[in-house]
Specification:
With 165 residues, this protein is an alpha/beta fold. Helices cover 21% and strands 30% of the residues.
């Protein structure tokens, strides 16, 4: 069995100490991060390497968005999709070698507070992203786990106070 954790980290470099504590205590085989807010060359590779997460695929951009999958199990990149056609780093897929499993790590756009496509362009963007991603996912023909931040928080208790971190 493979253990997998997913976490919207809201800046991996800013919160690397929390990540290190989590990985040391819980040690999932794979950690999928969203909103890493850095490019690959700025990603804290050495910190993950020191904890045994020697396999990494990072799809980031400076200051915004970005996803990364780190693993103690060998993996290879299985794809990156831009379901908005705007260059934002919101998806990376990896194949876990020897496990017949693909993990698709996504960071779905927030839709704003008004759930109306016509009145809220951000909500329309989110719906379009999900629609394109869903059509893509329907064509998958191998064991696949879709993880990440889906930006669905219907209740106040669904959102953790990130400033308290």
């Amino acid at each position: 069995m493979v253990s997998i954790a997913t976490w919207n980290i809201n800046s991996v470099r800013l919160r690397i100490a929390q990540v290190e504590r989590f990985l040391a205590a819980d040690a999932p085989d794979v950690l999928c991060l969203q909103e890493i807010k850095c490019r690959e060359e700025s990603f804290p590779h050495a910190a993950f390497e020191a904890l045994g997460y020697t396999h990494r695929v990072v799809h980031g951009q400076k200051g915004y968005h970005g996803v990364a999958t780190v693993s103690r199990i060998p993996l290879r990149e299985a794809g990156r999709h831009d379901w908005q056609d705007n260059g934002e780093a919101r998806h990376v897929g990896v194949e876990l070698l020897g496990h017949d499993l693909v993990i698709e790590n996504v960071y779905i756009p927030a839709g704003g507070n008004v759930p109306d496509r016509d009145a809220n362009p951000k909500f329309a963007q989110k719906l379009d992203f999900i629609g394109r991603m869903t059509r893509w996912a329907e064509a998958l023909h191998r064991p696949t786990l879709l993880v990440g931040d889906f930006n669905v928080a219907p209740l106040d208790c669904d959102v953790y106070d990130h400033k308290a971190l």
